[in-house]
Q: What sequence folds into this?
């Protein structure tokens, strides 16, 4: 999920994600293959692939897995053919939802995503009705205790970042998608560890979710979408307060 509360919600779900590391790698392999097929297998000439390799490295995906997926996409190894599809909709409280998927069966994926939306009382929307409220940006998160803010700001701006924000113990670095890989590489060379990073759909306006039951339902809804084999990313504009996330985590 993207937005102001992105890393907070990632932390809330981290235990479950660690248990599903194999599925995360499988989804990244699929995405690497598609990006390599579209733009070529050379990261220096394919910015999208370069960004995705950085994302894969940020979740400790083995290098051999990355290389194999790229070779499949480039036609050097056999593999399935996937196409990109996007679904837009609205969930409880008017929260906007964007679902990005890679599938070898568009009809099957559409039916299954529609079922999940319906199960949680959410509705799919017309193409473009949700995405117009989002911007494509690179997001990188750094532990605020790991680096001096002035040093970090100077470093990332020189590497091409657009902005640096501090939120509840983390720095959020925003970049144009074309500068994402350069900023990640600059952080790596400077020895500054990241909590995570990717090119995301960042909402222009956020919807506060202050009701605990609604927040729990929304997190469950998004988690089920993310757990679907064909779904690569789910972006929303919801902003759940820290205290509610802590309560929900404590109640698990």
A:
């Amino acid at each position: 999920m993207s937005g102001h509360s992105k890393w907070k919600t990632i932390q809330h779900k981290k235990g479950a994600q660690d248990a599903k590391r194999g599925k995360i790698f499988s989804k990244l392999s699929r995405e690497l293959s598609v990006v390599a097929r579209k733009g070529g297998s050379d990261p220096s000439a394919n910015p999208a692939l370069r960004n995705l390799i950085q994302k894969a490295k940020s979740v400790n995906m083995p290098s051999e897995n990355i290389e194999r997926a790229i070779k499949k996409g480039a036609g050097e190894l056999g593999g399935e053919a996937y196409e990109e599809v996007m679904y837009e909709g609205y969930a409880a409280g008017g929260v906007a939802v964007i679902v990005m998927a890679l599938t070898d069966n568009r009809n099957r994926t559409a039916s299954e995503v529609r079922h999940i939306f319906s199960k949680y009382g959410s509705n799919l929307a017309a193409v473009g009705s949700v995405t117009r409220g989002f911007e494509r940006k690179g997001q990188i998160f750094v532990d605020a205790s790991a680096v001096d803010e002035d040093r970090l700001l100077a470093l990332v701006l020189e590497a091409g970042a657009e902005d640096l924000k501090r939120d509840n113990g983390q720095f959020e670095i925003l970049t144009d998608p074309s500068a994402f890989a350069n900023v990640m590489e600059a952080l790596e060379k400077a020895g500054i560890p990241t909590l995570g990073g990717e090119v995301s759909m960042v909402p222009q306006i956020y919807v506060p979710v202050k009701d605990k039951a609604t927040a729990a339902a929304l997190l469950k809804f998004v988690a089920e979408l993310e757990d679907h084999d064909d779904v690569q990313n789910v972006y929303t504009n919801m902003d759940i307060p820290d205290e509610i996330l802590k309560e929900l985590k404590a109640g698990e």
Remarks:
- The chain has nine helices and ten strands.
- The longest helix spans residues 21-39.
- The beta strands are 83-90, 96-103, 123-124, 134-143, 161-167, 170-175, 196-203, 207-208, 231-236, 238-239.
